[in-house]
Amino acid sequence: MSRFITLPDLALRTLGGSVVAASDESFAEKESLIRPGRPGFQAETFGNKGQVYDGWETRRRREPGHDWALVRLGIPGVIRGVVIDTAWFKGNYPPHASVEAAAVVGYPSPAELLAADWVEIVPRSELKGDAEHHLTVTDEGRYTHVRLNIFPDGGVARLRVHGEPRPDLSVHEGLSLDLAALQNGALVTACSNEFYSAPNNVIFPGLARHQAEGWETARRRDEGNDWLVIRLAGRGIIRLAEIDTTNLLFNAPGWVSLTGLDGEGPDARHVDLLPRTRLQPDTSHRFRLDHTDPVTHVRVDIYPDGGLARVRLHGHLT
């Protein structure tokens, strides 16, 4: 398994990603590329355009050239790897693909994007049908958009763009914000256990619709407790913590505590933000925090195990 897939998918529709344009989508719509979840398929299900696919599929080309799709990342960032998934496309997948990236300020139109300066981050690579292709990216640039090129045509089920969020926080100058929000640049950097679901889920936007959209650990059989560490969007002072156990009816933690860390490594300064505090199942808890110490990370300890739907840490950047 590629290490980069533990990082968030910056292009995910749930995070605000959008497929803004494509050269063609005659057989299957371009928006499918960034849907959450695994692609589905039901054999011998035909519509007016043929077999229905959960993906993006172009017509058969009869002229020179290749097809492409432009994707606006939901969160700008440094891309560490790309997954091109041709699930269920067995006789109609593209034999090759490449990926380019661009950094464009503001809210560009498709025409403006096509005229942008593009950098190749994944060279033309061979694809197989009905398979996931994990392609590592070594470019250190910060990008806002990617372009998937397929040669010459065919179908791709999903495009995943895993990386580290690097949003523009200048719009929050002088304002409060959720310092733990993924879309603001926060990231879970360490976790004791992620048996049932990924820890970065707790800092996703919106409300968790079910247990799998939060973070849930295995049942502990020792005397310890589970925990995760959130690298904040920036060094800041946290005033309000929201600990949400929505949908966790019989597997919510009994208690939670929050510890701020200013810096990294053994020399990081520790700040007690919230002492061990009782939680209720299926409840959004809000706790005012009385301190003025800036921190860069927060450790969330749950006792002894269980799950959280969301963690919000509201405050100000220093």
Automatic annotation (TrEMBL):
Superkingdom, taxonomy of origin: Bacteria
Name of one Pfam family that matches: Allantoicase
Pathway terms, separated by semicolons: Nitrogen metabolism; (S)-allantoin degradation; (S)-ureidoglycolate from allantoate (aminidohydrolase route): step 1/1
Catalytic reaction annotation: allantoate + H2O = (S)-ureidoglycolate + urea
BP GO terms, sorted: allantoin catabolic process; purine nucleobase metabolic process
One GO MF term: allantoicase activity
TM stretches of this protein: none
Limits of the Allantoicase domain: 16-165, 185-317
This enzyme's EC code(s): 3.5.3.4
UniProtKB keywords: Hydrolase, Purine metabolism
Protein family (similarity comment): Belongs to the allantoicase family.
PANTHER family: ALLANTOICASE, INACTIVE ALLANTOICASE-RELATED
HAMAP family reported for this sequence: Allantoicase
The protein's name: Probable allantoicase
Organism annotation: Nonomuraea polychroma
Gene from which this protein is expressed: alc
